[in-house]
Amino acid sequence: MFTGIIRDVGRIEQIDDLGGGLRFTIASTFAPDLAVDESISVNGACQTVVQADAETFAVDSIEETLRKTTFSTLSVGAPVNLERPLQAGGRLDGHFVQGHVDATGTIEQVEREGTDWLYTVSFPEQYQRYLIPVGSITIDGISLTVARIGTGTLTVAIIPHTYEHTIVSDAWVEGAPVNLEFDMLGKYVVGFMESNESAPSTPPSVDL
Asked: Start and end of every Lumazine-binding domain (predicted)?
């Protein structure tokens, strides 16, 4: 479980082909504190540490991960958002984030305002039902608030701190792909309501 609060921006140092999957070696200030088998969020996707030393750590991304995320587009030198899991009893500064990417989106428009930046992102329309005005969304691992909703688009406002301390300033350009995880609580609510709608309105009768 994560919170969507980015704690470090790492750099891809090496990419190795695993015969379908990819191994990413990432330079990070987290590296000395990581151990094999630990979880870490990389651009919003929960990954398992398979190697770690004083300066870098490595994760293996399997075919399913590559299909559902932007990882297949990463190259050596690319910045990545990093977050370690939330410890029990820790402060929840963002929102509940599983690190399970639902889909990828595309940065459609970047608009600079006086003190912030507005980013409009397109996404597959079947996920529209998980959005509400001023609800939560995770984009590349960042916990953000939905400022506007369009048909198949959402807009978020990025404050200067987030702009400077995440990959936003380097990677979020028009046309760039991003990882999306919709609010877990919203998905459960929608799933519960849809299951109730498909259930019988009255219980079947039983002959005794």
From this structure: 1-95, 96-193
In a domain, 144, yes or no: yes
Does any domain span residue 139? Answer: yes
Choose between 40 and 204: higher pLDDT: 40
41 burial level (CB within 10 Å; 0-12, 13-18, 19+):
buried
With beta carbons less than 8 A apart as the criterion, state whether 171 and 78 touch: yes
Distance from C-alpha of 169 to C-alpha of 112, rounded to nearest angstrom: 12
For the four alpha carbons of 163, 169, 175 and 180, in that order, the dihedral sign comes to: negative
Closest of 142, 152, 150 to residue 178, by C-alpha: 142
* Six token digits for residue 207: 């002959």
Within a domain: 92: no
**Half-sphere exposure of residue 107: CA atoms within 13 angstroms, side-chain side:** 22
Write phi, then psi, for 116 (nearest 5 degrees). Answer: -145, -175
Tell me the one-letter amino acid at 137: I
CATH of the domain at 78: 2.40.30.20
Residue 22 in contact with residue 159, Cβ under 8 Å?
no
> What confidence tens digit (pLDDT) does each residue in 178-206 have?
999 999 888 888 888 888 776 565 555 55
Q: Which of 50, 83, 116 represents a domain boundary (last residue)?
A: 83
The span from the CA of 140 to the CA of 118, in Å, is 16
Phi, psi angles (nearest 5°) of residue 193: -65, -40
Cβ neighbours of 180 (radius 10 Å): 23
